[in-house]
Specification:
It is a single chain. The strands form two sheets. The protein has a seven-stranded mixed β-sheet. Strands 8-7-10-11 form a four-stranded antiparallel β-sheet, with no helix packed on it. Helix 1 packs across helix 2 (35-49). The protein is an alpha+beta fold and 235 residues long. The chain starts with a helix and ends with a strand. It contains four helices and eleven strands. It comes from Roseococcus pinisoli. This is Hydratase.
């Protein structure tokens, strides 16, 4: 996909981001045919929106197995306890994750160094009228970025493996085991492909455990020991 085509596709997406109106399928010739084209559109979309980037988010693809990385926009990262208007998010998907704050600039390959870790509840969303069915379209839409709710800080090394769970508050589902350290390394490698990150920026790994489609009025809780717990109230 040429740069001009990527910019044109990004304008369609940017309008959906700013207006809140659903985006119909991209016109023929502008729809991304592969991940490289989706990444080119996402890069143009970041430029079109003009919002600060605070890090990178690694999230499950539409197949639930692959993982996709894209920039995380600062206004989409909120403290736990912030009221959430679920009606503003189209096709929401909820999951547990972990956020790492970089202690050093991410400029070269190697283990990312974090000053702190935080539990997160990730509520993915879509600007498309129908959910993306392939990774290229999801990536073009900034990887289905919705909102990332951030819990309390925890100081410690990234666990090699973590048990994560998320559910409606009061329930206790079986935890799912995830290779957290490896996923953080994958996020760091992706961030380098996007140009690196400064100290203080964040890496987010979501989808460690997933829940049913969230509904207004619900209260969700997630736990990723030893990093911590977090609760979200949906309005």
């Amino acid at each position: 996909m040429s740069e001009t085509s990527a910019a044109q596709a990004a304008r369609y997406l940017a309008e959906a981001w700013t207006s809140g109106d659903p985006l119909a399928p991209l016109p023929e010739g502008l729809a991304p045919q592969d991940m490289a084209a989706g990444e080119a559109i996402a890069a143009e979309l970041v430029s079109s929106l003009g919002l600060p980037v605070c890090g990178l988010r690694l999230a499950p693809g539409p197949d639930g197995l692959s993982r996709i990385a894209a920039p995380l926009l600062e206004p989409r990262m909120l403290r736990a306890g912030t009221p959430i208007a679920l009606s503003t998010l189209r096709h929401p998907r909820i999951s547990a994750g972990v956020l790492g704050v970089l202690a050093e600039p991410l400029e070269a390959a190697g283990e990312p160094v974090f000053s702190a870790l935080h539990p997160v509840i990730d509520i993915a969303a879509s600007r498309y009228s129908a959910p993306a069915t392939d990774g290229a379209h999801q990536l073009a839409d900034l990887n289905g970025l919705g909102l990332v709710l951030v819990g309390k800080r925890w100081i410690g090394a990234v666990p090699e493996d973590a048990e994560a769970r998320i559910s409606l508050t009061g329930m206790r589902p079986r935890p799912l085991r995830a290779p957290l350290a490896a996923l953080m390394r994958e996020a760091a490698e992706a961030a380098l492909r996007w140009g690196g990150l400064p100290a203080g920026a964040v890496l987010v790994v979501s989808g460690l455990a997933t829940g049913s489609p969230p509904l207004p009025g619900q209260k969700w809780s997630a736990a990723i020991p030893p990093v911590g717990r977090i609760t979200a109230v949906l309005g």
